[in-house]
Amino acid sequence: MDSLTRSATRWKPHRCYLRRHIPADLSSWLLDPASLTLRLQQLCGGQFRVRVVSQAWGRPYPDEARLLGMDDSGRAIIRQVQLLCDRRPWIFARTVIPAVSLRGRLQRLAHLGTRPLGAMLFADPGMQRGMVELARILPGQTLFDAALSHAGRRPQEIWGRRSVFRLADKPLLVSEVFLPGFPARREGRPLWRAG
After folding, report:
1. Contact 79, 97 (CB under 8 A)
2. Full set of structural domains in the chain with CATH
3. Rounded to whole angstroms, how far apart are CA atoms 174 and 161?
4. Which of 44, 102, 128, 159 is most buried, judged by most C-beta within 10 A?
5. What is the pTM of this model?
C-alpha cells in the first residue's frame, strides 16, 4: 500500500470513548495522566531502555501539524522510538518537535539519544499537558505501519494515546502506541492475538 492510499489515524478526545469501547486491560494505561515512562520503568525493574528507530527533520502528518498550529510547510524534528522491557518492544512513541520549539534551553530536545523524553517532560515543573486523545489504530493507517514496521505479528488493531506538551510555552506532540506484546497486567499476558 503506497503512502497516497494509506489513511490517517482518527484521534478523539478520551472523554468521547465509552469505557466499554476501550480494551479493559489497557484502559488504565491509556487514561493515566502520569508519566508512562515512569510506570514502565517500575514495571520493568532495571530492564527498561529506549531504542531510537529514527530521528530526522521532516514534515509532520497533516493532523499533527494542525494540532501543533503549524502551517503546511512547517518542519519539525520527528523522533520515533521503541520503549523496551527486557529487550521486548512494548511501546512505539512518535514525538513531533516543531522548529520553533527548539530554541534556548529546549535545544536539548534535539539531542536526547537513548534517554527517555518522558522523564525529562515530567521532571520540568513548568510543563503543561494538553488533553489526552485516544485512537484505535488499524491496518492501512500510516501510524499502524510505522509502529509495527519492526514487528513480526500484525494484530487487527492497536491502541494509542497522544498529547501536546508545552515546555517554556513551546509545543511538542507525543504519541504513544501500545504494541502487541505489551502486557497490561503484571503476569505478562499479551493484550491481543494476531489477526
Report:
1. yes
2. 12-178 (3.40.1410.10)
3. 8
4. 159
5. 0.88
